[in-house]
Amino acid sequence: MTTLLLALLVALALSLAVEAAEGGPFRPISLRPGDLSVRLAAYALLTLFWLVFSWRPWLAAASCVLTVAGLAVVSQLKRGVIGEPLAFSDFALLPQVPRHPDLYYTRPVTDPRIGLPLLAALAVVGLWFWLEPTILPGRALPALACVLGLPLLLAGLELAAERAPLAGWIAGRFPRPDIEADVARHGQPATILAYWLRWRATRGAAVAAGLPAPPPAGPDDVLVVIQLESFIDPTRLGGPPLPLMETVRGQAHQYGRLRVPAHGAYTMRTEHAVLTGLDAESLGFGRFDPYLSAGGREPTSLARLARAAGFDTAFVHPFHRDFFQRAAVMRAFGFERLVMEEDFAGAPRVGPYVDDRAFGRRILAEVAAARGPLFLFGVTMENHGPWKPGRLPGLDDPLAQYLHHVVHTGEMVEELVRGLAGRRATLCVFGDHAPALPTCRPGFGDTATDYAIFRFGEPRGPAPGRVDLTADALGRLLRAAWANPARGQAESRASVAVPRS
């Protein structure tokens, strides 16, 4: 027991030092007794968690310190690219990392640069097991009691944390998501654990009342909404003007900047906001990954409302069905047909992903084949990161690669504009987030991308106007515009949320 207490004290001290060093003068740790006790309690729980697997105090202590250090390093890297620290929801994405390593800026386990360090780490753990004696009692029954008792104790703590009075105390400490402030006050491990518990306690709450459904439409009505991967006006990055932007300014019914929930990643946040019309505040602790909570079963789903109004619904995305669990989520949202990577077999690729222009041609084919009113939601893939050497022949600079891809995105949207002209249709295009480029770091444009709405088959109205929106406001605008164009425009102008820049 003395060895365990000493190892625990060392783990607490070193873990605190690690987080203090990582935060530095910019994010100093809180030394208030209440905040510090929460932080140290989380370290202690981490140590006990690792003790379950080894029953070697110094190995458990070292594992705790390495875990805290690993969380600090990953959080620092994530802040540099995305602008926010590690969240509990990120752990739900871990199974995707070995299947899609490039999308997570890492390498496959079979790569020697990843595989060899992992094997070395396993060898060190094995050696440590051999060198450090276990603290389990020598007799069988007491040893069995320890082996079973500690996991049961930790499981009991988890259950207690979901019930009064402990649940109320956690809710008082973490009333709402404020992740940077909470990490500074309580530390990364405590914040991850508390946010996970708060998410579990609140995820069943009703997110919002259903928004009004559009009325039944004529047989030729079409609504096409395209989420453009990492799209912003390239002139904002110092690139050449994109002809599409001139088309937008001259022909769009409405256009502007779109404030999205994240920078450089987390496509699902913007996607969810547009498809449901729900803002981040209404999602509570589910805002970090909205698909973890309702998983597309929200009553405000635009696809579900479209089906109720007599529309066919289709989702088009030239990538794996399992990524973000998109297939399951989109079916839950109410999309009847899914057109995904297997449907693009043989389609031309630019770099690792399907050419946006081929994607656009598939969209027009789906519209042409529709036998009634159609709501189609598409998500492009060509301009997904990472932009790194070897992606495009003779073009290794990340910004140059991005600008090469974004030209194809512009050509695709212009082809959609031409292809839908003459129909009674609405086309909406928007960027899901800014690109995670070295020249486009967090804070760029206040997480704003660009969007445009085109309307066809109706008399031309006044000259296009710039109206800056949030992603959830765009989702609500699409419903209003579908039902009544004049009212939709009025509502959009009341939803201005992004300063002109």
UniProtKB/TrEMBL annotation:
<dbReference type="Pfam" id="PF00884">
    <property type="entry name" value="Sulfatase"/>
</dbReference>
<dbReference type="GO" id="GO:0005886">
    <property type="term" value="C:plasma membrane"/>
</dbReference>
<feature type="transmembrane region" description="Helical">
    <location>
        <begin position="143"/>
        <end position="161"/>
    </location>
</feature>
<feature type="transmembrane region" description="Helical">
    <location>
        <begin position="114"/>
        <end position="131"/>
    </location>
</feature>
<feature type="domain" description="Sulfatase N-terminal">
    <location>
        <begin position="223"/>
        <end position="437"/>
    </location>
</feature>
<feature type="transmembrane region" description="Helical">
    <location>
        <begin position="58"/>
        <end position="77"/>
    </location>
</feature>
<feature type="transmembrane region" description="Helical">
    <location>
        <begin position="36"/>
        <end position="53"/>
    </location>
</feature>
<keyword id="KW-1003">Cell membrane</keyword>
<dbReference type="InterPro" id="IPR017850">
    <property type="entry name" value="Alkaline_phosphatase_core_sf"/>
</dbReference>
<keyword id="KW-0732">Signal</keyword>
<keyword id="KW-0812">Transmembrane</keyword>
<keyword id="KW-0472">Membrane</keyword>
<dbReference type="InterPro" id="IPR050448">
    <property type="entry name" value="OpgB/LTA_synthase_biosynth"/>
</dbReference>
<feature type="signal peptide">
    <location>
        <begin position="1"/>
        <end position="20"/>
    </location>
</feature>
<protein>
    <submittedName>
        <fullName>Capsular polysaccharide biosynthesis protein</fullName>
    </submittedName>
</protein>
<keyword id="KW-1133">Transmembrane helix</keyword>
<dbReference type="InterPro" id="IPR000917">
    <property type="entry name" value="Sulfatase_N"/>
</dbReference>
